[in-house]
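Dig into this one:

. . .
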Amino acid sequence: MLKLLTIETSCDETAVAVATDEPRILASVVASQNELHDEFGGVVPEIAARAHVRQIVPALHEALDRSGTALSEVGAVAVSTAPGLPGSLAVGLTAAKSLAFALGVPLVAVNHLEAHVYACLPSLWPDRSRGLEYPMPVADNQVFPCVGLVVSGGHTSLYHCRSPLAFELLGATTDDAAGEAFDKVAQLLGLGYPGGPAVERAARGGDPARHALPRAFLHDPRLDFSFSGLKTAVLYGLAPPSAPQGHARPGTPLDVEHLRRPAGQELADWAASFQEAVVDVLVAKSRQAVRRVNAGRLCVGGGVAANRRLRDRLVGMADEESIQLVIPPLCLCTDNAAMMALAVEKLRIGKTDGLDVEANPRPERQR
């Protein structure tokens, strides 16, 4: 049995895991940076990179201790190399290269977004029911082929996944990712960071039809996303009544610091209306994708996959389309190193990387 040490530092989570080549997870450690970025309403790249430097060694030791694994037992090292924040990726890649060199074991580079889809593999789950809103049966631990929806703070993408190592990009966001829009709207509403859970909490009891908000590309045959206009619509909807005539129109300056801060039912209605607009688009595009490639399964990953409203709507869509829906436990939706066990698939075909491998922070949109 080969033991694999995996590292994920593409954004603001310092994550280390120990996996076997089954694949099965022996330990998974995630060190969050939410408190560091809270006052800024989003991730600050330099702060994230510095935090990774501080957290990577303690996370490594904790993962090894929890799994009962000695460093000498590690047979390969895997690390996320694309896409992500340049400074954050560099910290994880440097640690992985150092370990692989010192131990004399193979190094495997993994695409962070493809790993989010791989997290739908049930053998990676710590408990097949814990944390799942909708446990779905998966025969023989197989989730491929499928359509993969990755929806997170930095990316919103659809893939045709023919196998764990054969991904075709069907569409992606042209501007803001869904998670980024959640963070920015949460800041506008005074809800804090991270925005996804904050908006979801605020939306409870809200009327999702109260505010008519745009849904870009909803009926467009392209499998692309755009959430910038939605965010801007909320921004100008919160313009103070005292704003000068014409001041609250899109394309004109607006002092964000002096926006109205809704409260009570008004806040719930704004949060619910925004959330429903995002979910409408994600569900519609997922439906288009599974129809286009005639897929029988939709696998969903990324932090926004933890949103309860999105999960509910995807379940309904899957029932209507007679397809299987697979969403991993909440702990595997947000960034983690367990999903980096995708490296096992590359090791099986003898595909490894040299110590000269470089990080590729470019967005996956650049096909």
Notes: The mean pLDDT is 92. The chain is about 35% helix and 15% strand.
